[in-house]
């Protein structure tokens, strides 16, 4: 257990920061082997959808699905902060919706969504989780915002988009619900 008041040395913080920045860079390059190499065991928690992608196969599936939806996905880092056990990155996620996002059909719209990601490290300085927070309605509004709602031909697309959003928020992963209270 990491002491929440003990900030690691500058050397450790620099090493964590380099690993996180390499992780971001390799995601944009879509070099999944290099991204996965930043973890001893890949683990993503997507808080808005309460989903977990755990292990190499599940995380590769997450990468595949998100890059089918947004093949040009990129990041603009806003800020990077350190804590006792994490690197916290605020960033813009950008991409053009050219493929299905779950069951949300492609709209061809571009999005720019503000996000935060917590890169959590264990006591041995291993990256153990990337936990991502964002407002999914902000993204959906951008993806569907360019659709002319006055044209009835577009209504099926919007309806499929809304149904897709509901489907994405299906059964929450119990690992994200059954959290112990903080030991303060």
What's the SSE blueprint?
Elements: H1 10-29, H2 32-36, E1 43-46, E2 51-54, H3 56-69, E3 74-82, E4 86-96, E5 110-121, E6 127-134, H4 136-145, H5 155-168, H6 174-177
Parallel strand pairs: 1-6
Antiparallel strand pairs: 1-2, 3-4, 4-5, 5-6
Pfam families: SnoaL
Protein name: Ester cyclase
Organism: [Mycobacterium] kokjensenii
Structure write-up:
This is Ester cyclase. InterPro entries: Cyclase_SnoaL-like, NTF2-like_dom_sf. It comes from [Mycobacterium] kokjensenii. The longest helix has 20 residues. A hairpin with a 3-residue loop joins strand 3 and strand 4. This protein has six helices and six strands; from the N terminus they run ααββαββββααα. The chain is elongated. It has 184 residues and is an alpha+beta fold.
Indicate the mean pLDDT.
90
Low-confidence stretches: none
The strands making up the biggest β-sheet line up spatially as: 2-1-6-5-4-3
Radius of gyration: 18 Å
Give the overall shape.
elongated
Order of helices and strands: HHEEHEEEEHHH
Major sheet details? 6 strands, mixed
How many runs of DSSP E, i.e. beta strands?
Answer: 6
Q: Strand share of the residues?
A: 25-35%
Based on secondary structure, the structural category is: alpha+beta
Give me the number of helical elements. Answer: 6
Q: Which percent bin holds the helix content? A: 25-40%
Gap from first CA to last CA: 13 Å
